[in-house]
Amino acid sequence: MVNSRVEAPTVAVMGSGGGAAGRSCAGCGGRIADRFLLFSMERYWHTRCLKCSCCHAQLGEYSSTCYSKGGMILCKNDYIRLFGHSGACSACGQSIPASEMVMRAQGNVYHLKCFTCATCRNRLVPGDRFHYINGTIFCEHDRPGGGLLSGHPTPLQANSMMSDQKVC
């Protein structure tokens, strides 16, 4: 079962009796002769082979749900860490492909084009200083009330998530 928005396939634990004989593991390619096997993302896995691409947690033991995006298999915590709570841009709500550069602020994830000042609409780029107030982004010059809240604005960083690079 796949939720198209967050790509969250369920991990089904199955007994290997009957129909599982001769199945190959999607993780290691070996024949599955174990008493139990996992079925996720339309493929069969040894219980020891279905692991999070980042933290290497065995997903059959850890949870009954795993996430798949950009060729990675992820536990819930790593999916949220990499792609935000929904895998969508916090500004426009549209999906963010795993290969796209993103901007992050206070745990939220944004498309580069959506990371803009709420007042002047100028796009902020890495190196720009900005203020994040009640979920709203302001450039250094447009923060409501003027001045600095804590002495310094938040430094801006971009995060690249390429499907063929290790991001964990």
What does this structure look like?
It is a single chain. The chain has two helices and eleven strands, in the order E-E-E-H-E-E-H-E-E-E-E-E-E. The two termini are 26 Å apart. Residues 1-8 and 148-168 have low confidence and may be disordered. It is mostly beta strands and 168 residues long. The strands form four sheets. A three-stranded antiparallel beta sheet has the order 1-2-3, with no helix packed on it. The radius of gyration is 21 Å and the shape is elongated. 7% of the residues lie in helices and 25% in strands.
Q: What count of helical segments does DSSP give?
A: 2
Category from helices, strands and their pairing: mainly beta
Q: In whole angstroms, how far apart are the ends?
A: 26 Å
Instruction: Bin the helical content.
Output: under 10%
Question: What topology does this entry show?
Answer:
Elements: E1 12-15, E2 36-40, E3 43-46, H1 59-62, E4 67-69, E5 72-74, H2 76-83, E6 101-105, E7 108-111, E8 129-133, E9 136-139, E10 154-155, E11 158-160
Antiparallel strand pairs: 1-2, 2-3, 4-5, 6-7, 6-11, 8-9, 8-10
Give a quick summary of the entry.
With 168 residues, the protein is mainly beta. The chain has helices at residues 59-62, 76-83; strands at 12-15, 36-40, 43-46, 67-69, 72-74, 101-105, 108-111, 129-133, 136-139, 154-155, 158-160.
